[in-house]
Design a protein that fits this description.
Strand content: 5-15%
Strand order of the largest sheet: 1-2
Largest sheet: 2 strands, antiparallel
Number of helices: 2
Structural class: mainly alpha
Distance between the termini: 56 Å
Number of domains: 1
Length: 69
């Protein structure tokens, strides 16, 4: 599952309100067993978003040069 900033916001709202149920941006609802699981999910989403930010498409140009024989 690719996470979005909305997913992270939903997790943080649940943590702030003390709720254990979260509805993600794709419509899926999850009920966590504890606040520790919520915090673990928050960390996992943060890590996934940070990794996605660091991915940039590779672009390059290859130049072949010769003096000509």
């Amino acid at each position: 599952m690719a996470f979005t900033q909305d997913d992270l916001d939903s997790i943080r709202e649940a943590i702030a309100s003390g709720e254990k149920s979260v509805t993600y941006a794709d419509g899926k609802s999850v009920t966590y067993r504890s606040m520790a699981e919520l915090h673990a999910a928050e960390a996992r989403i943060e890590k996934a978003l940070a990794a996605a930010e660091n991915r940039r498409p590779r672009r390059g140009v290859r130049v072949n040069v010769s003096k000509g024989l």
